[in-house]
Amino acid sequence: MIGDVLRASEQCPSPSLIHPDVTEPLSVQLDDWTPMKAYNWCAPHFSLVSTDRLLIPCTLTLLITYHYHPRTQLLFVFRAVPQMGDRSVHSEAAFSSAGTTEARTDSTHREVQFVQHYHGIVNIVHAENAIFGNNYGILYQGSDQSHPVTGNQHLSIDSEADLIRLLRPIPDASHTRDRKLSPPNSACFPGTRTDVIRRIVAWADSTLLWNTHVLWLYGYVGCGKSAIALAIALKFEERNRLVGSFFFFRNSGDRSRMIRFATTLACQLAAAIPEAAPFIEKAVKAEPGLLKSSLVSQLRRLVYEPLKAATKRGRLLRMTLLKGPFLIVIDGLDECDDRQDVQAFIGDMLEFFKKNPLVPLRFFITSRVEQHIQGHLKSNQVRLENLVNHCSRNDIDTFMTTCFEIEKSRNSVINTYVQKHGEWPTKQDKNQLVDHIGGSFIFASALFGYIADPTNKQSTPMERLPHTLNMNPGLDSLYLQTLSRSQDLPYFSNIISTLALLFEPLPIAGIAELLGIESFEVVRVLIDLQAIIHIPGTDDLPVTMCHTSLRDFLTTESRSKRFFVPPSFHIYLTNRCYDLKKEGRSGTAVASYITGHYEEHLQALVPLYPQILANSQDLPHFSDIISTITLLSEPLPIVGIANLLGIEALEVYQVLANLQAIVDSPEIGKDTPVAMRHPSLRDFLTTKTRSGTLFVPPCCTTLHHHQLHNIVNKGVSTTGTSF
Q1: Nearest CA to 434 among 468, 406, 482?
Q2: Number of domains the chain contains
């Protein structure tokens, strides 16, 4: 907000603003707290025109962006302050939008306290003579405060550390993460994607009322959404307008869930905008249960409201007026497993902006087109951009040309070939390759990785290039071709299946420990798969897929065929986790993984209960044994179950041996009780609509009481010992 203190005659209640470049004057009212319409560009030579045509020169170098008009885009608020003994008035530019309670009810007339020029704050006395000249200063209202709280304006170092400890942000979820260790490892190639980036930046910079607060960039797998999200985040970080960023990635622990989404953004907000930190701290202190509340509540109290409060006045208000709104970048929203929370996030975000259209905040979101996202983001509150419409052939050509030039400079085999045969690849071959790739950068990158693969000693890049032209467009052919190179090696299937189904990436040593094999055996399988799997330089860093589409490929039988990873492999992983947990291992990556994700593996078994139980269904006494385990209020050991049912302990053990993934079965003779590993198994077995022929009816309890009564009368305990 800005400009001079304006003078106008009390007899001129309806002056107009005019400008040399504006032919249509805009009406202005100088009544107390009445809105005036104005333009949103720098205008140092406005004149205030009264009804008697008296021209009063004044200057407006920047107008407030806090309130809008449908045609003129902005609302400029004045307050008339009568002067004793003078027929003129001072008009005080206000940092409040018209219509607010604060603006309407505050009738106390105050003199303007300060005018801030570019060289610092000066008292109004020293700026008085600027009223009829060109004053390029910023007008402060007397009640304005640069910071929202009294006392310390920012959190101390200790307080910031405490806030981080309380919020527990995910350290590798933002654009600043190590992309090789925490995929996606995507970045725009220099000189590419300029058009779509320019369009996104223009949207984020705009302060027009009708411009949306949310832009959704969508497209198919591998078209470069993550790379563009990174480019936008970096660009707005340079401009000091990035509030935060969150890059989802499937099967990457909490990065594939919403559980720490709000707190991670809140920590980034506190770091990017220190003025917001006191509001975040206040919310956490005022509501001890906030960090365990719903996603919507956390986003409101820890992100939206603190940013709104911090940008209402002072430095941040002036910053948004000068530079534009703040931005939050969300990439890969479709890779979040918590679909209901994703829908809640989108719905609440749009509702917040509907009620607070003037908050200087934008959301840039990228994802694939999935129903639970598309149904909510297809709204007139959201700007849609299909990245397919911005996939330039020239961008792919630039990328491939540069990659080949770099490879030729360091590959002696290619250099020797070029010296004898001339240019490689030929212009025709390169054009065919670019046409074959289409607009997919991930396909282009993967194809080039296949052509230039340094680990492939069986053929040369010149021999591999023609093969790529025969691969079907898309990644499936490339995945099939690459995986086939290691398929005959020992433990290939277990290693690939483990990578596909882990809830969080493990290092080479961790994969080996989980599978009970040596680290070198894991490396031997993965070494020829580096075109699609990132292998770190040491055994302690996580092995990651170059793109999440590989996991989708492996878990879709119609696409991966012989490389299909069935959901039943969760049974094996769950058993291995249980065995290692029982051993009491600690201090390793696997021990940490089991602590954090064992329950998730158990949950993954729920759809597999019918298949697992069917493995033992034809064994003698199966139904009685399962019913007993399900309905007993106190679990019994194997011998106790055998005595209760009047059968041999070995028969109980044989049934349970095939159920180790879902039932904790001790050795015969031990007093350790047989127990279900997860309560969902009992829910499944006692719900007829879910369990079908495996249903355990409650009437079985009558039989158990009768059997137990007989056992007691015979003087035999359920533990196998005499009373």
Answers
A1: 468
A2: 5
